[in-house]
Amino acid sequence: MKRWLIWYSLTCLCMASTSLGFAPSSPLQSLAIRSRARRQPLCEMKILTNQYLPQDITLSVNGKPMTVREIFKERTGIIFAVPGAFTPTCTDKHLPGFLDTTNLKKIMQKVDFVGCLAVNDPFVLKAWARQTGAIDKIVFISDGNGELTRAIGMEKDCTGGFMGIRSDRYAMFVAKGGRVQWLGEGEDAFAEEVVAALQRLWMVFTHASRFNSEYHEEGVPE
């Protein structure tokens, strides 16, 4: 009698949990749950200052495949990311700010290159660079598959505008080795804010005893 009651209670509990969605009711549902789990973003947290960019992700840099490790092995850079090439704000305000002669000169006094990153294919970015006169001034970085963008938690859902998943608007100063030294998002990603941020950083760097070891001799993480 006791065994029958235990069996009956466990059966009722399993049926109730299944109907409430606490457990898969079939092997197919179980497989679907595991499949959805595998499709989660690579990174649920946004990258922070003093963290390293993922080193082995491959991007298209002016049409040439390069890993993040290769991009920042011997160079420092400002990376500004846009939701999309040819979109109004990116074309009329964000990119032109970095093409401004005064802003570009001030930035290039501090870093080795300025790069524009977007979740667009390399051909679209090349056409955008030509139209805006940015060739030979800005390095265009295609994260066409959105791999880096997802890995650092900067993806943006633009499906409402028929654009799919794109990148948030941000800018970052990346030291040799790929360490993020400064990060600005939204309005802080425009050229004027980047110039001001670099000026503040350089005041700190100039007065820090560890400036040479952390900036000029920054190593690649293991």
TrEMBL record:
<feature type="active site" description="Cysteine sulfenic acid (-SOH) intermediate">
    <location>
        <position position="90"/>
    </location>
</feature>
<dbReference type="InterPro" id="IPR013740">
    <property type="entry name" value="Redoxin"/>
</dbReference>
<protein>
    <recommendedName>
        <fullName>Thioredoxin domain-containing protein</fullName>
    </recommendedName>
</protein>
<dbReference type="GO" id="GO:0005737">
    <property type="term" value="C:cytoplasm"/>
</dbReference>
<feature type="signal peptide">
    <location>
        <begin position="1"/>
        <end position="21"/>
    </location>
</feature>
<dbReference type="GO" id="GO:0045454">
    <property type="term" value="P:cell redox homeostasis"/>
</dbReference>
<comment type="similarity">
    <text>Belongs to the peroxiredoxin family. Prx5 subfamily.</text>
</comment>
<keyword id="KW-0049">Antioxidant</keyword>
<dbReference type="GO" id="GO:0034599">
    <property type="term" value="P:cellular response to oxidative stress"/>
</dbReference>
<keyword id="KW-0575">Peroxidase</keyword>
<comment type="function">
    <text>Thiol-specific peroxidase that catalyzes the reduction of hydrogen peroxide and organic hydroperoxides to water and alcohols, respectively. Plays a role in cell protection against oxidative stress by detoxifying peroxides.</text>
</comment>
<dbReference type="GO" id="GO:0042744">
    <property type="term" value="P:hydrogen peroxide catabolic process"/>
</dbReference>
<keyword id="KW-0676">Redox-active center</keyword>
<dbReference type="GO" id="GO:0008379">
    <property type="term" value="F:thioredoxin peroxidase activity"/>
</dbReference>
<feature type="domain" description="Thioredoxin">
    <location>
        <begin position="47"/>
        <end position="203"/>
    </location>
</feature>
<keyword id="KW-0732">Signal</keyword>
<dbReference type="InterPro" id="IPR036249">
    <property type="entry name" value="Thioredoxin-like_sf"/>
</dbReference>
<dbReference type="InterPro" id="IPR037944">
    <property type="entry name" value="PRX5-like"/>
</dbReference>
<dbReference type="Pfam" id="PF08534">
    <property type="entry name" value="Redoxin"/>
</dbReference>
<dbReference type="InterPro" id="IPR013766">
    <property type="entry name" value="Thioredoxin_domain"/>
</dbReference>
<keyword id="KW-0560">Oxidoreductase</keyword>
